Amino acid sequence: MGRASVKQVTAQVANLPQEALRLLSTPLVEFGGITISLIGLIAFVIGIIVVRLLARLLGRVIVRAFLAQGRDRRSAAAVARLGEVLAFTIGIVIVLESAGIELSAFIAMFAALGVGIGFGLQNLVNNLASGVIVLFEQPVRPGDFIELDGTSGEIRRIGLRATTLQTVDGQEVIIPNSQLLELRLINWTLSNTVVRLRLHFGVAYGSDPDRVRNIVLDVASRHAAVLDEPEATVQFEAFGSSSLDFVLLFWVAEPSQRQVVLSDLRYALDRAFHEHGIEIPFPQRDLHLRSVDPE
Description:
It contains eight helices and ten strands. The chain is α+β, with helices and mostly antiparallel strands and 295 residues long.
């Protein structure tokens, strides 16, 4: 009797792993052809944790690689984020397959949803794709001074969906990335920060053009923001209806300050012309009266 009891206990202990495996493999939830068991759920949770850690590791590797190439940290972070999302998505698919969850039901469900919401997400997908192109081709970078559709400012941040532009007035403009590729964009600092500016002005008829040129060049040379090389020049543009028209061409190293520099030069030119007796004309018309002899 005692020997029989020992054999029964031994048999039960030997069957414990198989019994535990059977319980863990027992389906907990079944819907739409998808079966979820306890062991599958545990494997799924562990797999998610591992995939998340690997995705974050990949993101760090991408950031280090971009910084080693001299890329901007914000751009590197955006690309790293994209890499993490892609790696996490692929990892989720692998984990689901490993957990024994059939993906055919999910594929069918997402396909049905995709037809319904595809048009609504069209702009979002377009902006995301444009963001990837901008990050890799770099037509603009954080810190660049650009002009887009009449708005000027400095690029503060480039995200996957949109780019933040800070205007000279301190306003922050959110620009969808697709517009950076579709609209006419002027990047004042793409290859270098040195740009040429134009200052148009006119003087009264009778003024000596050579004297005017020397005065204007002297004024420009005294401004700290005007570069010595390339040197400034004054061109005689036209004989206007009321004035001799000139343009001052000069170079500055900071495009964001161009309006300030132009304003300073206008103040200085007005003072210099006044000191040297050179008049700034205003529109005028000559009226000729002719008497008629009545008969």
